Amino acid sequence: MPLPPLLTSIVSWLRAGYPEGVPQHDYLPLFALLASQLTDIEVKEIAEELVNGTDPASQHAIRDAIEMTTHAEPSDADVARVRAHLAAGGWPLAHPSAG
């Protein structure tokens, strides 16, 4: 089933913002930031879309990050780093001063 337009645009933006793929250490803070603005279902849909076309190790890391997002808090420094990366690329849901 295709993603809704908003989620499609988020996935496209993430792929453009992370052309080499999201670094494994950024998954948890990235999904925590997304979860602060989107529903759990939307975050999982984005994660599943990011899994498509990635290597098995990345697929596993993405799924682990989603699981951890529901059970663990990323460090403030990790969230700030990812938030700054997203804001530098014009991400509308992440503001460097927020946090």
Distance between the termini: 34 Å
What's the β-strand tally? Answer: 0
**Approximate strand percentage:** under 5%
Q: Assembly type of the shown chains?
A: single chain
So what's the overall shape? globular
SS-derived structural category: mainly alpha
Number of helical elements: 5
Description:
The chain has a domain at 23-88. Mean pLDDT is 78; it is low at 94-99. It is mainly α and 99 residues long. It has five helices and no strands. It starts with a helix and ends in an 11-residue tail after the last helix. Helix 1 (5-17) packs across helix 3 (40-51). The longest helix has 14 residues, at 56-69. The protein is globular, with a radius of gyration of 12 Å. Helices cover 64% and strands 0% of the residues. It has helices spanning 5-17, 27-37, 40-51, 56-69, 76-88.
From the structure above, extract its key features:
mainly alpha, 64% helix, globular, disordered C terminus
Q: Which helices and strands occur, and which strands form pairs?
A:
Layout: H1 5-17, H2 27-37, H3 40-51, H4 56-69, H5 76-88
Question: Nutshell version of this structure?
Answer:
With 99 residues, the chain is an all-alpha fold.
